[in-house]
Amino acid sequence: VFINYGLNQIDLKIVYYGPGYSGKTTNLEWAHSHIDPELRSDILNLKTKEDRTIFFDFMQFEVGKIKGLTPKFNLYTVPGQDIYTVSRKIILNGVDGVIYVADSGEDRMRDNLFTLIDLVKNLRENKHKVEEFPIIMQYNKRDVEGALPVEYLRKTLNRFNAPDFEGVAIQGVGVFESLRTAIDLVVRRVRKMV
Ligand SMILES: Nc1nc2c(ncn2[C@@H]2O[C@H](COP(=O)(O)OP(=O)(O)OP(=O)(O)O)[C@@H](O)[C@H]2O)c(=O)[nH]1
Ligand SMILES: [Mg+2]
Q: I want to staple 61 with a disulfide (CB 3.0 to 4.6 A). Which of 40, 108, 127, 132 is the partner?
């Protein structure tokens, strides 16, 4: 959280986290193309030519009011590939809420778990109490052949009883549900702090 009382503005950071190729950038791109252009910035993508995120993607938008302050939501995606562990940690700096995008593919469980452990470790190092921190779970790629059952994903990944949603991000399914719920949790938490 960063409050600029001069501008009556409050900066909030929501990070899409999850393994490589799970659909984090796709979530952000869908949200970007369906939010009123007056209320949002352009999207900034830093990608390889194979469309993999190198450092992060970024978009900012405005919605609602918090005790007279205008909240600016800064949305980031992390790069999910193993080699970018350090980048993920840097991007989590100052985070107010996380949307964890898991991949439902049957051979993706190891990577889902690996990145989840990485998230928990990074949040703890940032002095956050993971159990009380705003986290949303999205089980993405529900449309792929052999998608693991939601019950199994929930039992294995959702250790914190976070609000969870099924996603098909390429079609926009679950994108706004996840984002709206993340915003709600973040705003509720910030109201207690400001
Ligand atoms: N079938 C299917 N494909 C999806 C879905 N969501 C994303 N994809 C595809 O999966 C690929 C990876 O999506 P990205 O959004 O780039 O994944 P990412 O999590 O940002 O990946 P990194 O940046 O490497 O961490 C792309 O080809 C997307 O079009 C989905 O729900 N279903
Ligand atoms: Mg990406």
A: 40
